[in-house]
């Protein structure tokens, strides 16, 4: 049985549905189940704050799953609100990145899907707007200034640049290993 870790000072027992979900995940990978349990803490808090303030803390997710299944609550409104809830936390001391926010929403979505709540991917993309995560460009291993001069041709381009454009980088491999591992 996976223990759902809580970051608050009082240990909270997970809902029976979350515990069952985590136990099934733990069969494949225990660390994944622990991370998912950690990510679901925010979802439980969101549901408690938004929908069921008076419910017992270990039953809030069970109740919202029943409400969504019965049609009392809309799954897309639930997930959209969760995105806004997490996005508002970016302004607070415990900031989260867009990539983490996206991952937390995916974990909540998978929990709902696990309990047979149908979530159409096209409707989800249309109704639940996720923040864009910024992809940083990776820099090449050697900048032009750091490349050995014997690699530059008369046009000032390196053989690396020429082979990269032509798609023949594999031809440069022997020269790179020769530069970094000269034979004596």
Number of domains: 2
Q: What does the overall shape look like?
A: globular
Number of helices: 8
Q: Distance between termini? A: 60 Å
- Give the averaged pLDDT, no decimals: 75
β-strand percent reads under 5%
Structural Rg = 25 Å
Residue windows where pLDDT falls under 50 for at least 5 positions: 5-11
Order of helices and strands: HHHHHHHH
For the secondary structure, the number of strands is 0
Biggest pleated-sheet summary = none
Structural class: mainly alpha
Helix content: 40-55%
Describe this structure in words.
The protein folds into two domains: 16-127, no CATH class; 144-180, no CATH class. The protein is built from eight helices and no strands. The protein has helices spanning 16-28, 30-50, 60-70, 75-88, 98-114, 121-127, 159-166, 173-180. It starts with 15 loop residues before the first helix and ends with a helix. Mean pLDDT is 75; it is low at 5-11.
Question: SSE layout and pairings?
Answer:
Elements: H1 16-28, H2 30-50, H3 60-70, H4 75-88, H5 98-114, H6 121-127, H7 159-166, H8 173-180
